[in-house]
Amino acid sequence: MNQHSRFNLPLCMAVEEDIFEHVDQTVFDYLPEIKGKKAIFVTEKFLNDTYPDTVSGICQDFGGAEVFLVTGADFDSASALAKRILIENITIVIGFGGGRVLDTAKYAAFISKAVYICLPTTLSNDSLASPFSVLGTEGTNRKTLPCKIPTAVIVDTSMILKAPVSQTYSGIGDTIGKYTAVYDWALSAKATGTRVDDFAYSIAQMCYDSVAHCDEKSVTNKGFIKTLSRALVMGGLAMEIAGSSRPCSGSEHLFAHAIEEYYPDIKISHGLAVALGAVGAANFQGRDDLNLIDICKKYGLDLNPASYGIDKDTFCDIWNRAAGTRPDRVTILNDTDLNKDWLCDIYDRMQG
Question: Are 275 and 176 in contact (CB under 8 A)?
Fold first, then answer.
């Protein structure tokens, strides 16, 4: 069996304006066998209260689906939801929300072997279509758990444009990070004697290119929202094909993980932390970091660490702790002398 016969693809991928008004028709065109089956609608209280008509409309379209409100995006909650899906003979899980909701719904659907329909309300990162769920375990600890990519991914551009612009910035940042991630993947393969999956590599590179070279660099433009949606979904597919997160996660993600682990009080989204990390990682890789900074500026992303309360000493410490967040992951950090002068110089460049 060749490697590419082992991965799953979504049966349905649609990006349209106001498509949430007819999710059922879109899905049943691809999956007629689930028509009339029992469904559960997974979201959170804020979204349930903010979009009551959308929620009730979709629930009605799926035969009066019950609403399940996610309170904690942790392993126990996802497992409890999976148990309910199995006991109540539910066939369809509909996730409506951002990362926390979608990761919970995706993992519960995976455990219970239900059909999973992903309806993102934001485009904050590429986890919406990835074969992984990040869930809380003990205390503030989180674990990345393997699962299955969605059966259907449906993006309503009107809904995305209602989301806070900071979440779209986060999605751009996560996509920009693929610039350094694919480089680290190739570096790791060489160092460990493994191979890079050329198809997954090309898709991840294409995700970056589609956003970096998009003619319309406006986060309120519907055409751009379609481009970003596809880039994030394709990032998920690249991970599915590779069988790991390597096409989308390198030293720039280790920087983001170090913030989450050691500086939880720093208020920065995952995607923006990745974008900050990509600038440093590009430097270590001997590549053009000014181009990355320029692209981010054109979209309106703020890459000044000080804007997030990260001073020079903290910035240096985050980078020095980064490799330790995933000691099994080979990146450019394994071969880089992170001396303070160099890190301070990078910090100054990012403030410009």
Answer: yes
